[in-house]
Amino acid sequence: MGENMNDFKALLEASVQIHGHLCPGQVLGVKMSMLGLREIGITDPRGKDRKSIIVFVEMDRCATDAVQSVTGCSLGHRTMKFMDYGKMAATFLNLRTGKAVRVIAKEESRQKAKDYFPESRNNYEAQLEAYKIMPDDELFDVMEVHVKVKHEDMPGRPLQRLQCDACGEYVQDMREVHRNGKVLCRPCADTGYYEPVGRDIF
Ligand SMILES: [Zn+2]
Ligand SMILES: [Zn+2]
């Protein structure tokens, strides 16, 4: 058993340690995770419950590190899925019960933070302090959702490794594309994020 799941201060400290600084995103991410885990009935995410959670994060921002810190879910464990939506939201799924909730940060909370601390020098400072004390229903919307995780997206050993017919590199977990009888990796099938420059170094 790690930190007490009810101990906001300890969880915030741990996430600041990992993230590198204290910011409104850490406060929001910690609170979002505590709420999400509570709603799906997870009490010990880093201990006995660690194989029972998957989190879908919809942003690659400060709060994402806090979600990782509180839930223990990570890309490397395949328990954190990054959905590139640019939204301040995350879905917490209990694999044992199938229960899932999507927690969305309310847009109005940004403004409301200033009402809590009208004397603060800027929005950032107001949010940092206000988010710590604002009640969950002012900070978040929570919706119950149904999430189906594909077999090839689950934690565990890779289901399959195939070689790309174009570049010769190997592709795991059914991320390949089948086209005209050929097996292609995604960058060879479409356009990748990289373009080879000149010759290989090795
Ligand atoms: Zn930050
Ligand atoms: Zn390829």
In words, what does this structure look like?
With 202 residues, this protein is of the alpha+beta class. Helices cover 33% and strands 19% of the residues. The chain is built from 7 helices and 9 strands, in the order ααβαβββαααβββββα. A 5-stranded mixed sheet has the order 2-1-3-4-5. The longest helix is centred in the N-terminal third of the chain and has 16 residues, at 24-39. The N and C termini lie far apart (46 Å). One zinc ion binds at residues 164, 166-167, 169, 184-185, 188.
Describe the structure concisely for a colleague.
This protein is α+β, with helices and mostly antiparallel strands and 202 residues long.
* Termini separation: 46 Å
* Helix run count: 7
User: Strands of the largest sheet, in order across it?
Assistant: 2-1-3-4-5
Structural class: alpha+beta
Distinct ligands: zinc ion
Low-confidence segments, given as residue ranges, are none
Query: C-alpha Rg, in Å?
Result: 20 Å
List the helices and strands in order. Answer: HHEHEEEHHHEEEEEH
Fraction in helix: 25-40%
Beta-strand content estimate: 15-25%
Q: Averaging pLDDT over every residue, what do you get?
A: 94
General form: globular
Note the main sheet.
5 strands, mixed
Overall strand count: 9
